[in-house]
Amino acid sequence: MDYSLLFNIQITNVLSVNIIQAFDIRNVPPNCSIFLVIFLLPYPKPLFKTKPFSVASVIYIHQLFRQCVLEKDLRRVALLCQMYARFSAGDQTPVVHFVGETKVRLKDLNLQVSKTHWLSLLPHMENVDNDDEQCSSGELQFALSYSPTVQRLTVILLKVRNVHNSEGRVPNAILIRVYLVSGPKVLRKKTSIQKIVDGGAEFNESIIFTVGQIQLNKAYLRASVREAHSMTEFSTIGHVTVGARRSGKELGHWQRMIDNSKSPCTMWHRLMMKKR
Question: Where is the C2 domain (predicted)?
């Protein structure tokens, strides 16, 4: 989904949301229509709804919505966009089903200038924020920075804390494997093995990838924490994925890196357990 955001601070405190287009809509029959519902969280009720559009390879929406938001509230407001499909057959009551959603925190964006962003609509189960401790196997802190002049993405792996495997056991030693996915290309690199002390470990290791600035809009990065049973035997404890095709905090970290090339952006992320 393609959209742009602009916040006018000096005059009216108005947030402008321009939904531009959507493409590659999946799992929706061609005889359906789709529409979008826009929320500004934590306000629970939808604020905007687009008109319905027939399903096509590219859907041109071009609808502009405006909402007054106080500047002091920008740090706690998130934009949630949900897509629904409506199917009707003859005289039967139309059936509406959920297609996907995406969320972006306004504090992670530069709202002083209008800028177009691509967002991926994810199924609800894939779009759960990493705030659910029952699904978490610990936390990973890392920093991201990107230099457009040399097309260099730097990942600084800092710390792991409260780490445990699916059985609840704290591992003796871990390493971190990092994957950069850009189209069909997958790059893999890993850290050294570190001993666990008091449920955590410090790495302070940098990993560098070469990636074009245009590719950043479609690339994503996955950091996988793995338990080291020996020098050659490993098992995955948990992972976190950040990038342009994510949502919420994982999208925000990536977007902050793109908007601020002068200094690394550091965040803690929950490690999601590997699905069985």
Answer: 136-269
The burial of 91, by beta-carbon neighbours within 10 Å (0-12 exposed, 13-18 middle, 19 or more buried), is given as exposed
- Residue 145 has a CB neighbour count (10 Å cut-off) of 18
User: Are 145 and 261 within 8 A, CB to CB?
Assistant: yes
Please report, as a single letter, which amino acid is at residue 178.
V
Q: Which CATH number fits domain 4-120: 3.40.50.150, 3.30.1490.20, 2.60.40.150, 3.40.50.300?
A: 2.60.40.150
Residues 6+ apart with CB under 8 A from 254: 144, 216, 220, 221, 242, 243, 244, 246
Please name which of 121, 126, 127 lies closest in space to residue 37, comparing C-alpha atoms.
121
- The model's pLDDT over 3-13, given as tens digits with 9 standing for 90+, comes to 454 444 444 78
What are the start and end residues of each CATH 2.60.40.150 domain in the chain?
4-120, 136-273
pLDDT (tens digit per residue) in 17-34: 888 888 888 778 778 899
**pLDDT category of residue 182 using cuts at 50, 70 and 90:** confident
